[in-house]
Amino acid sequence: MGSVFHDGELAVQQRMGQGHIAARVGRGIRADIPGPAAAFLADQPMVVIATADDAGRPWVGQIIGLPGFAQVVDARTILLGGRPAAGDPLVTLLRTRRRVGLIALQPQTRRRVRINGVAEPDGEGIRLTTEQVYSNCPQYITRRRIVAFEPALPGPPVRAASLNSTARQIISAADSFFVGSADPDGNADASHRGGNPGFLRVLSPTQLRWPDYRGNSMFMTLGNIVTDPRCGLLVPDWATGATLHLTGLAEITWDEATFAPGAQCSIDFTVTEAVSVPQASPLRWGEPELSPVNPA
């Protein structure tokens, strides 16, 4: 039986000396949706989705709805009863069939589930056929609770080739963001990154750096970057509902001089396009409770 991992993932697992752990954890990846994951999805008001545009550039966006908008209808099918908000880069992309990565994260409980598959328009919503379903540990997730639901039209998106002062402030204050990447066959993946504010660093108006902390040892994001450096980021402003969507090129840096405390390596990211959307989400979240396992 072949490995569930592609060559890029296997290469990083070997370099990190964690291949034996990845092989064990990888046995939990399945194509169908287990009952607990289905119940978890039905409770969520938000899912994050990564996919690539026609030029192969990954973007990460979100779909917001009242709990129940994400419904599992059979062993491998999820119906999302909504679309991304106006201004989200995924609005146009999800009008056609796309390979996507989805992550549902519940900050209140520090739980998350990741799903990769194929998305297609379905009426006013989206039908997702699953190919990989698996849970992740609660590490590095900031606990926060919803304090208000304030539906409003999103503000006009602002597109730029670099980060303006507002974008840099959102990034510097971030304790969470999401990464979208793809494997050599174009299969998309969405993952979460968390840490203390400042762990996502602005090096210049077009350069970011973040540490890679030890996680599930499968190295899906890093493995994808090894084979295709294109990736996308979603940095949410949890208090205001604004979103910052970035696409660009990522590079793994193995030079320990660049490592933040607790990091296995560093990721340098070059922004090629940024999209800021004010009031993209109606959800308003309360004060953060940082994860106790975050490196200082």
Description:
The chain is α+β, with helices and mostly antiparallel strands and 296 residues long. 16% of the residues lie in helices and 42% in strands. The chain is built from six helices and 17 strands. It has helices spanning 7-16, 19-26, 35-42, 90-93, 165-173, 220-227, and strands at residues 46-52, 58-64, 70-74, 77-80, 98-106, 111-122, 125-135, 146-149, 158-160, 176-182, 188-194, 201-204, 207-213, 230-236, 243-253, 263-277, 283-285. A hairpin with a 5-residue loop joins strand 1 and strand 2. The longest helix is centred in the first third of the chain and has 10 residues, at 7-16. The protein is globular and about 45 Å long. The protein starts with 6 loop residues before the first helix and ends in an 11-residue tail after the last strand. The mean pLDDT is 96.
Summarize it.
This protein is of the alpha+beta class and 296 residues long. Helix content is 16%, strand content 42%.
Write the layout of secondary structure elements.
Blueprint: H1 7-16, H2 19-26, H3 35-42, E1 46-52, E2 58-64, E3 70-74, E4 77-80, H4 90-93, E5 98-106, E6 111-122, E7 125-135, E8 146-149, E9 158-160, H5 165-173, E10 176-182, E11 188-194, E12 201-204, E13 207-213, H6 220-227, E14 230-236, E15 243-253, E16 263-277, E17 283-285
Helix pairs in contact: 1-6
Q: If you compute it from the alpha carbons, what radius of gyration comes out, rounded to the nearest whole angstrom?
A: 18 Å
Q: What is the 3D form?
A: globular
Low-confidence stretches: none
Specify the helix fraction band.
10-25%
Strand composition percent? 35-45%
Order of helices and strands: HHHEEEEHEEEEEHEEEEHEEEE
Number of helices: 6
